[in-house]
Amino acid sequence: MYSLSGKITNATGIGPSVSDKLALKNIHTIQDLLLWVPLRYEDRSEQKLIMDLVKDELVTIQAEVTAISNQYKGRRSMQRATVRDSSGPLKLIWFNAPFIKDALVKGQSYFFSGKLNNRGMMTQPKVEKISNDTTHTNRLVPIYSSVPEIKAGNLRRYLKEVTQHLDPISDLLATEFDLLPLNETFKHLHFPDDQELTIKARERLAIEELLGLMQHSAEIKQQWKDNASAHLVTVDKENSIPDLPFTLTSAQQRSTRELLVDIQSTTPMNRLLLGDVGSGKTVVAGIATLHTLNNNHHVAFIAPTQILAEQHLETLSKLFPQINIQLLTAKTKFSLAEKPTLYLGTHAVINKLQQIKPALVIYDEQHRFGVEQRSEISKLTFRPHILTMSATPIPRSLMLTIFSHLELSVIDEMPAGRKPIKTWLASEKKRAGSYDWIKKKLRESGGQVLVVCPFIEHSEHEAFANVKSATETFAEIKPQFPDQKVELLHGRLTSDQKDKITKRLFDQKIDILVTTPIVEVGIDLPAALIIIIESAERFGLASLHQLRGRVGRAGQQAYCLLFPSSKSPTISQRLDVFTKTNDGIKLAEFDLQNRGAGDLFGTNQHGFDQLQFSNWTNIELITKAKQIFDELKSSQITWKSVISRQSTTPTAN
Ligand code: ADP
Ligand code: MG
């Protein structure tokens, strides 16, 4: 039996070489493995007689092997078998699967799961011994995001082993609040008896996750109350807003005022600035920075990526030429400046906070609302004011439900002159024409094109056979645009390579950038004119909206083209809604109402969301979690989340 915190090597079948491969995906414990959530489930649960099979339908048959052969053609091989059940015979065929010959025994019966082809043969069927608890056939089969060098079937086997032999988890929530017990939750998450159960399992984990956040938030609030004073900043009322190249929107002005009131107090600020992409959060943070520096204090500004840190450096030094900025990266040597300075960078800045002693710390986007970082901050010997910025589309009241420790400022208005981005749903037939149109646009008005693909590399898995990868798309697009400079940027490049490409992008030395959603995290490219989103159906509408927000930042008429890799009418309908709506929250709500089992719980696969199981827009679920949270509190029950993986719920200090 396995305990959640046990090492994965405890599991039968997982030796050191497999565990090394899993470690690359941050899977170290049994719990980590259990939280390797299926991307979707393939329905191989329907059993049919051979006589009743129809073309292209995925089913499972139970049949006896009557003949088996293996044939080599050069380096390729082909395996054929004949099987039969009570209704008649069937031919099966595999390619390059020589092990099949040894796996099948003449005269024995097996489950075969697959589809009939044009010629009435079942191609590449999955094979499994007959039992009433199968793993790969005759059931809803989990499909996982792949782990390099681990076969999909083996991954499934490991999860089966672990879900079947999991120690009973002590589970207060299940008994007190009539929720699905965790042992069952993990079973149904991976090997569900029906689709309904997968939803229940995800809901259970989502509740766990949300409660963890709420609890942590309450702890922080308590700490904040108990704690000593922050630096006091004084702001000259007459000059609270400096000269800027543009007029602030009234939402920006309001948020600025709220912020400035907070930092003029010795109670440390803990404020979230919420605003859609492009709403202009940075300048508001910049103004607070300016006043803090004017009061002779340092400021720290933490961006989620190097690219963004450099971007902020450029924007802020343009908007506020009077301030002193030091870029801090893992590579730069840190030295404390004499003049009040804005220290800007990624995680490297956090490690230097105790030395910098900033009066104000700003977190930009994707930082889980600073929840983890705030634990780091609570270890400091001083109390800074904290500002967190986010574009997460979540209604205000819900945000406050989860994050009781935060004050909230909302920028609910776009800078004047922004034109809504013209968005089209395109088809493959229109691709060549679209490229011609793009060439014409670039000739006429200049500008840059972003091409975003869901994945870096093509997935071997049939579930993703049509999904466009960045490397493939780059190879396709480059020869189509001989007069343009086309480059590829994704997360697997070295940071040097990424830095170089980013620099060239900012300097407008790249016309067309093919990339993965790493551009999503808030990059500001004023010249970006057109964004193409490949396999657009792989993204939630709220995520598409974030991506679309990358273009048209300088007020030019910008365009967004969606190329779906599926022609399903539901997909077209969903994407069609996107072409007609420009409101992030509305789109998030639409995502929620039209959820399928697969995309019910966020877009974590693409790194958009900080939540793994819940979704910011899942109002019902957040409300339910809040009720449980309140009941736990009023009955003074101590509860600790079992889901303590870094990436899901923060561990307590
Ligand atoms: P986000 O809220 O997504 O972080 P940014 O702060 O990056 O948005 O702002 C997007 C762009 O809009 C920047 O180029 C910024 O200089 C510009 N901008 C911000 N506020 C205004 C405004 N009031 N009028 C015009 N442009 C603005
Ligand atoms: Mg931003």
SSE order and pairing:
Elements: H1 16-23, H2 30-34, E1 40-43, E2 59-73, E3 76-85, E4 88-95, H3 99-103, E5 109-116, E6 122-129, E7 140-143, H4 152-164, H5 172-177, H6 182-190, H7 195-226, H8 250-263, E8 270-275, H9 281-294, E9 299-302, H10 306-319, E10 325-328, E11 342-345, H11 347-351, H12 353-356, E12 360-364, H13 371-378, E13 385-390, H14 396-402, E14 407-411, E15 422-425, H15 431-445, E16 448-452, H16 470-480, E17 486-489, H17 495-506, E18 512-515, E19 528-534, H18 541-548, E20 559-563, H19 569-580, H20 584-593, H21 619-634
Parallel strand pairs: 4-6, 8-13, 8-14, 9-11, 9-12, 10-11, 12-13, 15-20, 16-18, 16-19, 17-18, 19-20
Antiparallel strand pairs: 1-7, 2-3, 2-5, 3-4, 5-6
Helix pairs in contact: 4-6, 6-7, 7-13, 7-21, 8-9, 18-20
The chain binds adenosine-5'-diphosphate and magnesium ion (MG).
Adenosine-5'-diphosphate is lined by residues 246-249, 252, 275, 277-283, 315, 391, 415, 522, 524, 526, 553.
Pick out its properties.
653 residues, alpha/beta, OB fold (Dihydrolipoamide Acetyltransferase, E2P), Rossmann fold, 4 domains, seven-stranded parallel β-sheet, six-stranded parallel β-sheet, disordered C terminus, binds magnesium ion
Report on this structure.
With 653 residues, this protein is an alpha/beta fold. It is built from 21 helices and 20 strands. The protein has a seven-stranded parallel beta sheet. A six-stranded parallel beta sheet has the order 15-20-19-16-18-17, with helices on both faces. Helix 6 (182-190) packs across helix 7, helix 7 (195-226) runs parallel beside helix 13 (371-378) and helix 8 runs parallel beside helix 9. The relative contact order is 0.10. The structure holds adenosine-5'-diphosphate and magnesium ion. Residues 246-249, 252, 275, 277-283, 315, 391, 415, 522, 524, 526, 553 line the site of adenosine-5'-diphosphate.
